[in-house]
Amino acid sequence: MPDPSLLETFESPTKTPFLIEHINEEFTSVCPVTGHPDFGVITLRYEPANCCVELKSLKLYFQSFRNEGIYYEAVTNQIRDDLVASMQPSWLEVKTSWKGRGGIRSNITASFGDEHSSSNI
Amino acid sequence: MPDPSLLETFESPTKTPFLIEHINEEFTSVCPVTGHPDFGVITLRYEPANCCVELKSLKLYFQSFRNEGIYYEAVTNQIRDDLVASMQPSWLEVKTSWKGRGGIRSNITASFGDEHSSSNI
Amino acid sequence: MPDPSLLETFESPTKTPFLIEHINEEFTSVCPVTGHPDFGVITLRYEPANCCVELKSLKLYFQSFRNEGIYYEAVTNQIRDDLVASMQPSWLEVKTSWKGRGGIRSNITASFGDEHSSSNI
Amino acid sequence: MPDPSLLETFESPTKTPFLIEHINEEFTSVCPVTGHPDFGVITLRYEPANCCVELKSLKLYFQSFRNEGIYYEAVTNQIRDDLVASMQPSWLEVKTSWKGRGGIRSNITASFGDEHSSSNI
Amino acid sequence: MPDPSLLETFESPTKTPFLIEHINEEFTSVCPVTGHPDFGVITLRYEPANCCVELKSLKLYFQSFRNEGIYYEAVTNQIRDDLVASMQPSWLEVKTSWKGRGGIRSNITASFGDEHSSSNI
Amino acid sequence: MPDPSLLETFESPTKTPFLIEHINEEFTSVCPVTGHPDFGVITLRYEPANCCVELKSLKLYFQSFRNEGIYYEAVTNQIRDDLVASMQPSWLEVKTSWKGRGGIRSNITASFGDEHSSSNI
Amino acid sequence: MPDPSLLETFESPTKTPFLIEHINEEFTSVCPVTGHPDFGVITLRYEPANCCVELKSLKLYFQSFRNEGIYYEAVTNQIRDDLVASMQPSWLEVKTSWKGRGGIRSNITASFGDEHSSSNI
Amino acid sequence: MPDPSLLETFESPTKTPFLIEHINEEFTSVCPVTGHPDFGVITLRYEPANCCVELKSLKLYFQSFRNEGIYYEAVTNQIRDDLVASMQPSWLEVKTSWKGRGGIRSNITASFGDEHSSSNI
Amino acid sequence: MPDPSLLETFESPTKTPFLIEHINEEFTSVCPVTGHPDFGVITLRYEPANCCVELKSLKLYFQSFRNEGIYYEAVTNQIRDDLVASMQPSWLEVKTSWKGRGGIRSNITASFGDEHSSSNI
Amino acid sequence: MPDPSLLETFESPTKTPFLIEHINEEFTSVCPVTGHPDFGVITLRYEPANCCVELKSLKLYFQSFRNEGIYYEAVTNQIRDDLVASMQPSWLEVKTSWKGRGGIRSNITASFGDEHSSSNI
């Protein structure tokens, strides 16, 4: 099951605002209605305040959704909430793009805070 | 015939505004004038208020148009109206793109409410 | 000859503003100077007020130009005028793109009314 | 030699502003310095006031540059001037794009009047 | 008028068979029926025997067709014949590809001799 | 109606076998069943024996099908037969590719004689 | 060595502002540190005041850098300065794009004056 | 280990603001957690004040990260800090794009100072 | 001037036949007729017998043509001959592709020996 | 340094011939002449006889070249030889594609044994 305790952080190398983007093209969870696997791409963008998420721990956290029956919308918001709790960033955005099922493909976007103007690149 | 009672919703996982997009590339209905089948792509985008549409129920709802004789314009507006009645979202937009018939191809767009600025992503 | 009486309309399924686009990639008329055939693509976009143009009637109306000797500019404005008279839409735009003749290819655009801001999609 | 008397016009089919574009991909003239042929694409865009340029006459006018020794910059401005004198349009723009010579390729743009906002499509 | 005396050759730098290709994307002549200009691409491929055609002289030879009224088929065969007479190559092929006129575009191919197997690259 | 008397020929510029290809991307005729227009691309390839078809006459011949109610298969074979009768070529092939109607698009090929091996390019 | 005396100008054919672009895809100079050749693309855009640079003289001027040991940054600024001195244009911009060396590729941009709003096309 | 003393500068050829971009597509360092190699693209953009970074010295500086165990975020900020200390530019931006590891690929952006409006090209 | 003494070789790491390809996209020499620079791409493919050409020496050898007035055909054959003399390979092929001059672009191919069947990849 | 003892194998799951392909897009070694890093893509294809190479061990083996000064040709043949010694496959092919240095990019191919006809995919 999704396990936010897997998330580890390290101190940001700078106090100057900057922008970080991690794209996971190999995310999978399970549909809570049909039990079939879902496959998606997770795009995480954030501006750190005091700390950054460590990449291997992020990978393990994403992998902890593998056998969880959970809606697309809930995946997106839980990742947003777990990462905000773990890092307390200045700004954070999670976009999820899901491969088609039953002829329908889906994209969900959730965010936290206001994007810093200088990082709007 | 189109059956909005097929639509099921579940409680939104968050009160924070976010953006959902479902794209159905396998929609079919029937031309009310000629009786020939029509094929189209439905792109649904919305910001939930209190609930989200369940994906399997959305698929069955779209499939209920299969043998209905109905204009492109009516399909687009009925989907808009049925989903607004079912979910009462903050904002919703339906775009339909139809393969050519008689050398003419068509695109229709209908919307509800004002898009939230932070979801303009 | 171009016959606007072929155009039929049906009542718009909604009073809410929405956007309709019909693209005819198989339009042909005749050059009034040389008598040679012209081939073009007609892109019609409009926001209905009270009624929509029926698609099969639109096809027959477009086919009625087949043997008419008429300038590109006149085709474009006549389609604009005939459709405005038939539907009295809130806004309408006609673009015509013509295959090359004598090494020159042409595009003509004519419009009616002001585009509704919410349909600027 | 370039012969603006070849240009013929016909009365515009409407008083409503609209936009016309003619693209000649087979333009050739001669370099006044080296005597070698130049090859270019002429893109003409304009909003008619009272009349439009007839397409076959435009083709013959463009062909009249075939054996003229003339700079790229002069071609562009002469076409602008001859068409403005012939049609007195509301707005007109001429872009010329020339194939490379000696490893250098060139693009020149000249215009007349102010583009009508509603035709900015 | 087409002037084969413009063609100059230089001694081939080797007796070993090899393959040469020259592509002229800026060829123009005149239609003998309508008097309108034709535009084409000439692709020349050959295996020299004792001499090669000099490139600047080839350019001037191609330019000598500029105001000649001549069929596509005759252009292709005359270039083949003039170059064979000038160079006496082991093998030679001329392909011409013409821009569309009246909605029709054309390609013509003529050759001389048998292509050497080792140059079949 | 299709009029083979429009076809004119001129003497081939050479007795050496060579290959000619004419592609008409603006062919239109009428469906004999529904009365609706058909749009297609005609690709003609041939090796002349003693004469070649003149291009402007070929264009007028193709235009003579404009208002003829005729099957795809009949168009293809009639063009083959009319051109063989007019030119008596060594080899000739007609391919027709038709835009989709009712979701189906079609390609037809008919030929005459044996292709000369050296023109198999 | 770079020789601005090669630059020749001719009187602008008009006093109306217009835009000229010359793109040289075959520029080469020499690295002042390693002595190895550098290869780049020079894009020159300007609005003439009273005169234009003649194209053949521009080609010879660019060729005069062929064996000069000079930094990318200095090439860009020298071309800007030499052309401004030669033509005194209203506005001028030089962009240089260099092929990779040591795994690094570079782009440099320098400009003079303010671009005229109507030529911002 | 990363060695900023490798960075050499030369005096800027002009006091006029201009824009420099260097793109290194062959950057590699080592993951401090797993010890596996990381591969990335570094895009450096800056406006010089008094001096520019010499390209060969920049290459050697980038190569000095080859066997360093260092986070993506720290690489990005260290390059920003070392180049700012070395050149004291008006404005500088470093973007790093990393190939995927564990299914996740990352992009980091850090900047210094305010971009000059005229160089916003 | 072209200097084959720059070419250095090293012993092939194996006696088993294998295939080597070097592509130089930055070749330049000078036209012996006009004195203007030529730019080309050299593609060298070979199967070594006992030794391979060292890459830096190959680069310096290619650079030695920089200011040589020499025909395309002679460049191609000289590179073939110099490399065959230097390496005595089992099989070797040189293709040169030249940017257009006067509207004509050229490709030349020369080879030595018979390609080993197992390396026909 | 390159360490073939890192390679581990496991028993092939079948005696039926089949085809395996591993593509490493993150290979790096060092130039033995200049000391600068080289970057390449290794494509390994083979048909196992009795055993297959274990993927993590292959990754560590490839990483062992990271700081080795070695020619492209030697890298390619050593990988071929080490894998043949380790696995004794029916057939094996190694292709290496190297990023450009000094304007030259290279591809090397070495193979072992005869490819089984059924795996010619």
Describe the structure.
Ten copies of one chain form a homodecamer. In chain A, the strands form two sheets. Chain A has a four-stranded antiparallel sheet, covered by helices on one side. Chain A is of the alpha+beta class and 121 residues long. Chain A has a single domain, classed as GTP cyclohydrolase I, C-terminal domain/NADPH-dependent 7-cyano-7-deazaguanine reductase, N-terminal domain (GTP Cyclohydrolase I, domain 2), CATH 3.30.1130.10. In chain A, strand 2 and strand 3 form a beta hairpin. Helices cover 21% and strands 40% of the residues of chain A. Strand 6 of chain A pairs antiparallel with strand 2 of chain B, so a sheet runs across the interface.
Question: What labels would you give this structure?
Answer:
121 residues, GTP Cyclohydrolase I, domain 2, alpha+beta, two-stranded antiparallel ribbon, homodecamer, 21% helix
